[in-house]
Amino acid sequence: MDGLMLTLEGFPDHDSAKDAVAVLNGLRPHLARASAISARMKLEQATAATEALAAIGTAAAVLASDARVVSVNAEFSNLTKGVLSEKNGRLSIRDSSSILRFDAAFEAANRGLGRSIAVRKGKEAQFVIHFVPSTRSAQDVFFGGTVLVVIDMPSASTVLNIDLIRSLYDLTPAEAKVAYLIAGGETPSGAASALNVSIETVRTHLKRAFAKTGVERQATLSSRLRCMAPRSL
Questions:
Q1: CB atoms near residue 180 (< 10 Å)
Q2: What are phi and psi of 35, to 5 degrees?
Q3: Which single residue of 46, 67, 218, 228 has CA 20 to 30 Å from 203?
Q4: d(CA 209, CA 66)
Q5: What is the predicted pLDDT for the residue at 199?
Q6: DSSP characters over 69-113
Q7: What is the spatial distance between Cα 7 and Cα 180, in angstroms, rounded to a whole number?
Q8: Residue 125: DSSP 8-state
Q9: Residue 200 near residue 96 (C-beta atoms within 8 A)
Q10: What is the pLDDT of residue 14?
Q11: What is the chain's alpha carbon radius of gyration, rounded to the nearest angstrom?
């Protein structure tokens, strides 16, 4: 729950402090309204973000730091039916053997580290759940303290365009180009050749892209970028 605490300190005597309480009580309804408006704006912001992702065929949900569901699009609900569930407003996984992996991935995302887990929906093909932390400029879209959860169907994955990669993860132009090429299947040496730069330069950009996207391996970077790419609708 959102809260607001306002304190005034350094009063010369007890009577002055008591007078300040009356002033603060007068401000209380105005502060309450401001807090309510802020919460409503955050909800609408999260809803707009998940619906924008739905427009490009991406199943996504936004969770608060306690796993409470802030917003979820229809694609996410349909794909995870029977796999994920809400308990007391918090998202969880039904499969008991996957609970620890799910919780660990979510907690890592809360600490700013992106994580992914693979799950199976009955006897159907496996899909991947990506937990993406809201960091840097991504907080302009997904407000701070939230985790973006995205479902990736590997067989349908493509690659994001460079501008969207930059916007989502606050990458520099050079970092975005390297990330784009690696996600598309290029090796670091192949990316160096394509960009006409040294392999050391590519590795530097790749290391920074890893840090900003919250991954540690090229394969994870690739799946992370593919999961939010436009699909054929």
A1: 21
A2: -65, -40
A3: 228
A4: 27
A5: 95
A6: EEEE-HHHHHHTBTTEEEETTEEEES-GGGHHHHHHHHHHHHTT-
A7: 48
A8: P
A9: no
A10: 77
A11: 22
Please state the φ and ψ torsions of residue 179, each to the nearest 5 degrees: -60, -40
Both tokens of 86, joined, read 């809400």
Q: Residues near 23 by Cβ (< 8 Å), separated by ≥ 6?
A: none
Q: What pTM was estimated for this model as a whole?
A: 0.54
Q: Which of 110, 131, 111 is CA-nearest to residue 119?
A: 131
The residues of the chain scoring below 70 in pLDDT are 1-9, 35-43, 121-126, 135-145, 154-160, 167-168, 227-233
What is the pLDDT at residue 40?
64
**Cα(152)–Cα(223) distance, rounded to whole angstroms?**
8
Query: Residue 117 class from Cβ within 10 Å (0-12 exposed, 13-18 middle, 19+ buried)?
Result: middle
CA–CA gap between residue 106 and residue 63 (Å, rounded) = 9
Phi and psi of 83, rounded to 5°? -110, -50
C-beta atoms surrounding 39 within 10 Å: 12
- Measured between alpha carbons, how far is 141 from 111 in angstroms, rounded to an integer? 18
How far is 175 from 121, CA to CA, in rounded Å? 35
**Domain annotation for the chain: domains and CATH numbers:** 1-156 (3.30.450.20), 157-233 (1.10.10.10)
